[in-house]
């Protein structure tokens, strides 16, 4: 059951890469920015981010850290529960 | 059971691939400074009460049932992972799941407000994803509307006698979709279309984004069921603890 579900999930993620051509899969928030500027071109953002990762590589690193931390905790807890159940 | 599941999956995939022909799009958190300050303030004020009730519920639960701490960590970690994954979608752009449905089913919607806000804050401060001025609005959509939709839908599904796994799937999926419907609504209110007004702008934002988000919502639903399966097999004890509070799986 779980394997089937994970397989479908993976399929849903990988399929677009093959179906949709000529795109870079840009972050949707960047596209939202463009949409806003199209609807009201005179709007100026009135506050700027305090800290921005210098460049795409650092941003990727931070996103990876976020995912890795979460995945580590999930793995730990599920492993703990599994071991505890086996040992009674 | 197996056969009907397979049929369901095939239908979903077919619909999904049909959508692949749609134009390119947007959806995610609202960027820093991209809400006029009046709206930023409105959403902050609407969001704060939920946050404080959540905080109170959380401290109370931790005092009464310290054993639930691990599950709390699990729900937080789940949201952390899912909202870090920018996943490509059929529309040729990327967006990410929210992971808030799972925690809402475990602990109730109010506590998920606190967890969701923590994740949003992390992303706003370190990743320049979302922002501090727009945190109120983003938290309202992802950490208030999402969890409440998940919780409400789950209760409704159970009343209608829908199977447990299917209920979990639907709740998590709709929480994800509702989050982005809310985001579109927030953007539409702040940036109404010149000719067609708020409603027109909403349709503009929502009609396109719904397609981007749909496959991600399904993915989130599936992953939530997987984690729930694990919990159901290995940690009945903790789930029973929460059950006493009337929150989860009676």
TrEMBL record, chain A:
Family matches, as InterPro entries: CbiN
GO molecular function: cobalt ion transmembrane transporter activity
Primary localization: membrane
Membrane topology: Multi-pass membrane protein
UniProt keyword terms in alphabetical order: Cell membrane, Cobalamin biosynthesis, Cobalt, Cobalt transport, Ion transport, Membrane, Transmembrane, Transmembrane helix, Transport
An example Gene Ontology biological process: cobalamin biosynthetic process
Listed transmembrane segments: 61-81
Any GO CC annotation of this UniProt entry: plasma membrane
Compartments it resides in: Cell membrane
Pfam families named among the record's database cross-references: CbiN
Pathway involvement of the protein, from the record: Cofactor biosynthesis; adenosylcobalamin biosynthesis
Role summary: Part of the energy-coupling factor (ECF) transporter complex CbiMNOQ involved in cobalt import.
Quaternary state and interactors: Forms an energy-coupling factor (ECF) transporter complex composed of an ATP-binding protein (A component, CbiO), a transmembrane protein (T component, CbiQ) and 2 possible substrate-capture proteins (S components, CbiM and CbiN) of unknown stoichimetry.
Record NCBIfam families: cbiN (TIGR01165), PRK02898.1 (NF002780)
Family membership noted in the UniProt record: Belongs to the CbiN family.
Protein name: Cobalt transport protein CbiN
Lineage: Bacteria, Bacillati, Bacillota, Bacilli, Bacillales
TrEMBL record, chain B:
One Pfam family here: CbiM
GO biological process entries: cobalamin biosynthetic process
Pathway: Cofactor biosynthesis; adenosylcobalamin biosynthesis
Gene Ontology CC, one term: ATP-binding cassette (ABC) transporter complex
Molecular function (Gene Ontology), one example: cobalt ion transmembrane transporter activity
Record-given protein name: Cobalt transport protein CbiM
InterPro entries attached to this UniProt entry: CbiM, CbiM/NikMN
Function: Part of the energy-coupling factor (ECF) transporter complex CbiMNOQ involved in cobalt import.
Bilayer-spanning residue ranges: 37-58, 102-128, 135-156, 168-190, 202-231
Quaternary context: Forms an energy-coupling factor (ECF) transporter complex composed of an ATP-binding protein (A component, CbiO), a transmembrane protein (T component, CbiQ) and 2 possible substrate-capture proteins (S components, CbiM and CbiN) of unknown stoichimetry.
Ranges in a coiled coil: none
Keywords for the protein's UniProt record, in alphabetical order: Cell membrane, Cobalamin biosynthesis, Cobalt, Cobalt transport, Ion transport, Membrane, Signal, Transmembrane, Transmembrane helix, Transport
Primary localization class, coarse: membrane
HAMAP family: CbiM (MF_01462)
Species: Anoxybacillus mongoliensis
């Amino acid at each position: 059951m779980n394997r089937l579900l994970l397989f479908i999930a993976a399929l849903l993620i990988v399929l677009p890469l093959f179906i949709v051509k000529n795109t870079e899969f840009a972050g949707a928030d960047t596209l939202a920015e463009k949409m806003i500027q199209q609807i009201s071109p005179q709007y100026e953002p009135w506050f700027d981010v305090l800290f921005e990762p210098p460049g795409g590589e650092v941003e990727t690193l931070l996103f990876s850290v976020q995912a890795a931390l979460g995945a580590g905790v999930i793995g730990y807890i599920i492993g703990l529960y599994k071991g505890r159940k086996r040992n009674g | 059971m197996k056969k009907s599941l397979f049929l369901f999956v095939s239908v979903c995939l077919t619909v999904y691939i049909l959508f692949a022909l749609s134009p390119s799009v947007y959806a995610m958190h609202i960027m820093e400074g991209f809400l006029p300050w009046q709206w930023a303030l409105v959403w902050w004020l609407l969001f704060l009460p939920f946050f404080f009730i959540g905080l109170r519920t959380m401290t109370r639960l931790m005092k009464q049932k310290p054993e639930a701490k691990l599950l709390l960590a699990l729900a937080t970690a789940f949201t952390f992972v899912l909202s870090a994954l920018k996943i490509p979608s059929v529309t040729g752009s990327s967006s990410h799941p929210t992971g808030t449905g799972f925690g809402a089913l475990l602990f109730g919607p109010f506590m998920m407000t606190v967890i969701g806000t923590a994740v949003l804050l992390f992303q706003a401060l370190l990743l320049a994803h979302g922002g501090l001025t727009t945190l109120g609005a983003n938290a309202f959509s992802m950490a208030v509307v999402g969890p409440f939709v998940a919780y409400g839908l789950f209760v409704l599904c159970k009343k209608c006698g829908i199977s447990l796994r299917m209920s979990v799937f639907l709740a998590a999926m709709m929480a994800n979709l509702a989050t982005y419907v809310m985001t579109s609504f927030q953007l539409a209110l702040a940036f109404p279309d010149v000719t067609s007004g708020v409603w027109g702008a909403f349709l503009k934002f929502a009609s396109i984004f719904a397609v981007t988000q749909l496959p991600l919502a399904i993915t989130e639903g599936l992953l939530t069921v997987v984690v729930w399966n694990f919990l159901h097999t290995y940690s009945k004890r903790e789930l029973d603890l929460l059950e006493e509070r009337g929150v989860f799986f009676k």
